[in-house]
Design goal:
Chain B: GO terms for molecular function: electron transfer activity. The complex is a heterodimer of chains A (83) and B (254). Chain A contains 3 helices and no strands. Chain A has 83 residues and is mainly alpha-helical. The longest helix of chain B has 15 residues, at 39-53. Chain B has a single domain, classed as Rossmann fold (3-Layer(aba) Sandwich). In chain B, 36% of the residues are buried. Classes of the chains: A mainly alpha (83), B alpha/beta (254). Chains A and B meet through helix 1 and helix 3 of A and loops of B.
Chain lengths: 83, 254
């Protein structure tokens, strides 16, 4: 059975693992949740649904990037710009 | 303008790490501590990459001074979109005494060697908080400077820089070549994604020694001791106004 979306899913997982290294609550916490989120849908076979799930994962990446940026920005602002 | 931009990046202890002072008060603990690029340098890199995306400059070069590990920081800059890197090798004793003056001498020498048209630096590093390198570099090169930039626009052969100053903003127009230092609100730096970091491994990092640039790194500063900031004292709760008044009288406030 061909699995055309397999590489997309693996790429998403790897990217999330990479981005999770900076997660405020720790890498281990993030990794555990990431794995369970992927395992929950491991039996999904409908390509359309898989594509939707991958799109959701990509949305999470964007959210995490925004979270990290805001966290850094706020720390800097608090440290240097507030009396 | 259509020249080359040099961006200085510094490897510092990550902003989220709790800084600890060495027991002998000679400095802070750096072994086994997470390091990353100075946040203000990220903003500087982003601004340079943006200029390149607008086709206003032809090349972005990231420069960092320090031991082998600073190459990671240069890689991050390359992943964000810089074209190539220059690693100025400084290690051991020289690295410990490396201050703004020494770095600005290196940056000035490199700006001349690379024929840069613009130099962008972060306004300050979050480890030593010096806020001097940009200003010193501009002085050594005798170039105009736009410090604390919160908005930069290219107008022909001139730059319009909006500066963050006490109590407001100041708009200045300066000639190129120039030195800029990035303030916090200049832009939002992009995230160095995994595929871009992989691609950045193919980009070139040139290694140079300060002696090749004819820069003398001797420092006239001596660190006497490093101390932690004083701990904030715990407060007390009082029950009544009378208690408050008597407490205040006790500590001589009224």
């Amino acid at each position: 059975m061909a699995k055309p979306l397999r590489s997309d899913v693996i790429r998403l997982y790897k990217t999330l693992l990479y981005i999770g290294r900076e997660y405020p609550k720790g890498t281990a916490y993030f990794k555990e949740r990431l794995k369970s989120a992927f395992m929950k849908n491991k039996d999904e076979t409908d390509p359309e649904k898989i594509q939707k799930l991958v799109a959701r994962g990509e949305f999470v990446i964007k959210e995490l990037e925004a979270l990290y940026f805001l966290r850094k920005y706020r720390t800097m602002k608090k440290r240097y710009y507030e009396p | 303008m259509s020249g080359r931009v040099l961006v200085g990046v510094k490897r510092v202890i990550d902003y989220a790490v709790k800084i600890r002072v060495k027991p002998d008060n000679s400095g802070v603990v750096t072994d086994g501590v997470k390091h990353s690029m100075n946040p203000f340098c990220e903003i500087a890199v982003e601004e340079a990459v943006k200029l390149k995306e607008k086709k206003l400059v032809k090349e972005v070069v990231a420069v960092s001074c320090g031991p082998q590990q600073v190459q990671e920081t240069i890689r991050t800059a390359l992943a964000m979109g810089a074209d190539r890197g220059i690693h100025v090798e400084v290690s051991g004793k020289d690295y410990e005494s490396l201050g703004p003056l020494q770095v600005s001498k290196i940056m000035a020498a490199l700006a001349k060697k690379e024929e840069a048209q613009l130099l962008i630096l972060g306004k300050q590093a979050i480890d030593d908080d010096c806020n001097q390198t940009g200003q010193m570099t501009a002085a050594l090169l005798d170039w105009p400077q736009g410090t604390f930039a919160s908005e930069v626009t290219v107008e022909g052969e001139k730059l319009k820089v909006v500066r963050e100053i006490d109590g407001g903003l100041e708009t200045i127009k300066i000639n190129l070549p120039a030195v800029l230092t990035a303030d916090l609100r200049l832009n939002t730096p992009r995230y160095a994604t995994l595929p871009n970091i992989m691609k950045a491994k193919k980009k070139k990092i040139t290694q140079v020694k300060p002696s090749d640039l004819g820069v003398d790194l001797t420092s006239r500063l001596q660190v006497l001791r490093v101390d932690e900031p004083p701990q904030r004292q715990a407060g007390v709760k009082v029950e009544t106004v009378d208690d408050l008044v008597s407490k205040l009288r006790e500590c001589g406030r009224i």
